[in-house]
């Protein structure tokens, strides 16, 4: 194993602490919290265009996102921890999306559902001025779900992928 070189004699307290890392490790607690976070993702009730219809279908009885703890759509950004960007993001809506994201408490995650939120989809062409060409131009995205529109099964698969990332200890956005 590679040994860490000793800190220089004139190192400041801050530099010493940075090199030593955390004095107390709470890995077991953090793992437990991540299991709970992964199995209780509460999406924001929020749709942008046609992909939102598929998102609604995913929440309905046939597909039932509740099986994975993700069916509790919240009416307020302050109660949600996952934003499913479902649909075309017009330039007019861009600042609204950002404002809602900022209102969500940490830890929080974002899913880009459909071609429009990944890179503009069918509305992307040279010289266009109406849409944002990708949700990640506004907020950090954790999972991308391709399709136009993706089926509800694809959204559920995306949620499961996000669960895996959270359980694996992915750093969350603040
Ligand atoms: S990806 Fe297709 S289905 Fe989804 S919002 Fe864009 S045009 Fe509509």
Give a description of the structure:
The chain contains 6 helices and 3 strands; from the N terminus they run αααβαβαβα. It is mainly alpha-helical and about 170 residues long. It has a single domain, classed as Rossmann fold. The two termini are about 35 Å apart. Iron/sulfur cluster binds near residues 116, 121, 122 and 149.
Briefly say what this structure is:
By secondary structure, this protein is mainly α. The protein has 6 helices and 3 strands. It has a 3-stranded parallel beta sheet.
Please supply descriptive tags for the structure shown above.
6 helices, three-stranded parallel sheet, binds iron/sulfur cluster, 34% helix, 174 residues, mainly alpha, Rossmann fold
Helical content class:
25-40%
Individual helix count: 6
CATH topology call: Rossmann fold
Query: What is the CATH C-level name?
Result: Alpha Beta
- Summarize the main sheet: 3 strands, parallel
The total beta strand count reads 3
Outline the secondary-structure elements.
Layout: H1 13-20, H2 27-38, H3 51-59, E1 82-86, H4 94-103, E2 109-113, H5 115-119, E3 143-145, H6 152-167
Parallel strand pairs: 1-2, 2-3
The structure holds iron/sulfur cluster.
Iron/sulfur cluster (SF4) is lined by residues 49-51, 87-88, 114-116, 121-122, 148-149.
């Amino acid at each position: 194993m590679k040994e860490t070189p000793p800190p220089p004699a004139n190192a400041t307290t801050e530099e010493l602490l940075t090199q030593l890392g955390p004095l107390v490790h709470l890995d077991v607690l953090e793992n437990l919290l991540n299991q709970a976070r992964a199995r209780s993702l509460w999406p924001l009730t929020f749709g942008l265009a046609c992909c939102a219809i598929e998102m609604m279908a995913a929440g309905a009885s046939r597909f039932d996102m509740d099986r994975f703890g993700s069916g509790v759509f919240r009416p307020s950004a302050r109660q949600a921890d996952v934003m499913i960007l479902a649909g075309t993001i017009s330039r007019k809506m861009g600042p609204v999306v950002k404002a809602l994201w900022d209102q969500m408490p940490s830890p929080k995650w974002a899913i880009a559902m459909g071609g429009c939120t990944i890179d503009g989809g069918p509305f992307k062409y040279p010289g266009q001025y109406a849409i944002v060409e990708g949700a990640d131009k506004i907020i950090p995205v954790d999972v991308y779900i391709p399709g136009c529109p993706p089926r509800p099964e694809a959204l559920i698969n995306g949620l499961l992928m996000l669960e895996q990332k959270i359980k694996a200890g992915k750093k969350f956005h603040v």
